[in-house]
Design goal:
CATH superfamily: Response regulator
CATH topology: Rossmann fold
Mean pLDDT: 87
Number of helices: 5
Radius of gyration: 21 Å
Number of domains: 1
Order of helices and strands: EHEHEHEHEHEE
CATH class: Alpha Beta
Strand content: 15-25%
Largest sheet: 5 strands, parallel
Distance between the termini: 52 Å
């Protein structure tokens, strides 16, 4: 699992990097970005499973970033950290299927629990995607084998008796 921290405040990013026990959360790599453009570049070039982002930033919002993530079909669990208890922000975050909306100041104990739940959901999502992929490949192999052997696996009948 990998995480991406996005905040225009360098000190917030640094505090998150240092005060969260990423290893205990099974997060292998923690990427950082100070704006939406940097975050998009990281997401394009690295697997990211957990996003922790500010909402209000000078060069684009965390909500715009999550909208782009959803449009591009990245499976990322998004946690918003914000100073704004604004209902419109929270409503938009829900519409974009964010995992959590968390108000600053950051309570690291609570944030750790939220990240832990997001990691569990990301793992479940990966497991489901793998099962779908394996089902697809199994069907493909069945069709290939059936065409080679002359068997119809759906009925159990054989063409070459």
């Amino acid at each position: 699992m990998n995480a991406l921290l996005v905040d225009d405040d360098y000190f917030v990013v640094t505090a998150l990097e240092k005060k969260i026990d990423w290893q205990s959360l099974h997060i292998e790599e923690v990427y950082t970005a100070n704006n939406v453009a940097q975050a998009r570049e990281i997401i394009r070039n690295h697997p990211v499973h957990i996003l922790i982002s500010d909402i209000d930033m000078p060069q684009g919002s965390g909500l715009e970033l999550l909208a782009w993530i959803r449009e591009e079909n990245y499976n990322i669990q998004a946690i918003f950290l914000t100073n704004y208890a604004d209902f419109n922000y929270a409503q938009k975050a829900i519409e974009l299927q964010s995992f959590e909306y968390f108000l600053k100041p950051i309570e690291f104990d609570k944030l750790m629990l939220i990240i832990q739940k997001a990691v569990a959901r990301a793992k479940e999502q990966q497991k489901n995607e793998k099962a779908i992929q394996e089902g697809y490949f199994w069907q493909k192999i069945k069709r290939k084998y059936a065409s080679i052997s002359g068997e119809n696996w759906s009925t159990g009948a054989s063409r070459s008796l």
